[in-house]
Amino acid sequence: MITAIIAMESEAEILLKNATVTAEKTLLGKKTYEGEFHGKKFALVICGVGKVNAALFANAVIREFHAEAVINIGIAGAIGAGIGVMDVVLSTEAAFHDQDEVMVKYYPFRRSFQADPALLALAQMACEGVTIHGKVVSGLIVSGDRYVTDNAIKQSLRERFDPCCTEMEGAGIAHASFVNDTPFLIIRTMSDSADEGADDSYDNFIDVAAHQSAAIVLKMLEL
Fold first, then answer.
1. What pLDDT digit, counting tens, does each position of 134-157 carry?
2. 84-190-82 Cα angle (round to 5)
3. How many C-beta atoms surround the C-beta of residue 199 within 10 A?
4. Is 196 a catalytic residue?
5. 3-state DSSP assignment of residue 201
6. CB 188 within 8 Å of CB 66
7. Catalytic hit among 11, 34, 167, 169
8. Would you tell me the crossing angle of helices 9-18 and 198-222 to the nearest 10 degrees?
9. Per-residue model confidence (pLDDT) at position 31
10. Is the model more confident about 140 or about 39?
11. pTM for the full model?
């Protein structure tokens, strides 16, 4: 079973609309869904915003639903050179951008978490069958409990990590997936450029960007 973890209800809308929901239950105070799409079973949880919420729900659904793979989808702020609004970023790895270097000395002793190559290849194939309003790139995604709307912070993240984009949940899901030995992948469509114009861009593109990420997952379930 593939489990999709999404931060906000608006990002889950297209998945619920296109799939057959077979069961609903409450997990950690949030509604979760089980269903089928093209004969394949999936589970969906709306975890809320932030890396702690994301890690809590990733751990819970892996154990509750015995997920064979975890996919985090949604929106993000573009960081990498040449990456812009409506481009898609598929994770090769994920890291926390607000984690002190000393944390690497402690369990799980890692600066980043590697995404599953098979899921990445499947997502790349799925992108070829979906209308993408931008380009598709693969690379590092960084996460932290900060909505980046400042070009100076954006430049700092670029210099420190050289990531493709930044968001607030992916690395928490990656961490939980790693300690549970469960394959993961992050799929994000850029809603903004993580700079002073982020608020306006976010408002204008959040829905179409979120739907694009969800469409990729639906195509993955078809393949």
1. 999 999 999 999 999 999 999 999
2. 20
3. 11
4. no
5. helix
6. no
7. 11
8. 30
9. 86
10. 140
11. 0.96
Helix (H, G, I), strand (E, B) or coil at 2: strand
Nearest alpha carbon to residue 45 among 20, 11, 92, 77: 11
Q: Which two tokens stand for residue 21?
A: 């929901």
The whole-number pLDDT of residue 84 equals: 97
The dihedral through the CA atoms of 77, 44, 33, 211 has a sign that is positive
What token pair was written down for 202? Answer: 């976010």
Residue 75 tokens read as 């929106």
CB 43 within 8 A of CB 4: yes
Any idea which residue has 């973890």 for tokens?
5
pLDDT reported for residue 38: 81
End-to-end CA distance of the chain: 14
Q: Which of 102, 103, 190 is nearest to 141 (CA)?
A: 190
Catalytic residue among 167, 169, 192, 195: 192
- 192 is known as an active-site residue: yes
The answer to whether 142 touches 97, Cβ cutoff 8 Å, is: yes
Handedness of CA 152, 190, 55, 196 (dihedral sign): positive
Phi/psi zone of residue 147: left (φ > 0), alpha (ψ -120 to 50 degrees), beta? beta
Token pair 């690395």 in the structure block, residue: 171
Count CB atoms within 10 A of the CB of residue 2: 22
